[in-house]
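User: Hey, quick favor. My workstation is busy. Could you predict this chain's structure for me?
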Amino acid sequence: MPRTPKSVAGDDLFDMNTPKLRWGILGTANIARKNWQAIRLAGNSTLTAVASRDAERARRFIAECQADAPFDPPPRALGSYEALLAAPDVDAIYIPLPTGLRKEWVLRAAQAGKHVVCEKPCGVTVADAREMLDACRRHRVQFMDGVMFMHSRRLEKLRATLDDGASIGQIRRITSAFSFNGGADFLAKDIRAHGGLEPLGCLGDLGWYCVRFSLWAMGWQLPRRVTGRILAEHTRADSPAPVPTEFSGELLFDGSVSAGFYCSFITGNEQWANISGTRGYLRVPDFVLPFHGAEAAFEVQNSVFNIRGCNFHMESHARRVAVAEHSDSHATSQETNLFRNFTAQVRSGQLNEAWPDMALKTQQVVNACLDSARDGGRVVELES
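Assistant: No problem, here it is.
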């Protein structure tokens, strides 16, 4: 069973005398700005180059990011992805390209001997994901998908709470939701509404996190059966096919433990997760992107129902659990931990097989949910 790596913030995770891992960013997607800063704050990493198919676009991206989070020396701009893969001073590649383009460049990065952090979903299909992961193993490079919350120190506290036997008891139900209302402009112009670039739509962009959280909570066992429903979809004028813009899924695990999730491009901001058990439940109101501040927290509830004559009392017995961890843009934030942890793994000289296994299992469940939805909500069986 894969184990979630622990995150340690600060200089104690790396030797200052060890050369920094040299990163390249392949593409100039907006999310890359956040990870530019995360690489800078990691302490054991540096950014060497940014590649775009348009060198001027790469130069603009670098100039804008340098204004917020400067590297010394500044990364250089490259006018092709091939140039980045050929660069001798790049050890690892961060790939934020659209899902429809990712497989090719993960395969080429692995062949070039570059370690890979890849945005999610990893591939369009499970077969794509397997091919990508096999290539990374064959070429002895580390692979990880870019799920930042997996590197939050809050996850360690959540696991300890689930495992203490008293707070939650046996898990019976997991529910989660991740959504934002992109609006008309998003649906008309954003690549996530384009069936050729992001064919999984909101399920791949948002549902991936919900599925990942459920798999993590269940110790990485796959559900036995899944169902999915496309609640809404959208077709851009230039898109070859519609994409899901509102989706719900249901997972059934051994022991009749169930997990349900909802994701949407047309519902207001929400990103919560609940885990219900035989003794209580816990709620994480911000499991994907922690609310702004210097703590990451969750609530454990063990309410008590008392009846005394005509008085029916439901008593709240809640406790808040928190870790000192900034929400973003800080040396302790989860995105910084991601790059710090990845670099430490690469510097260890050993491949971490847990990370690609997590990615593959998430891809399997996400695609099974989509297969179900496209076949009228039929039950799809999964093999462990």
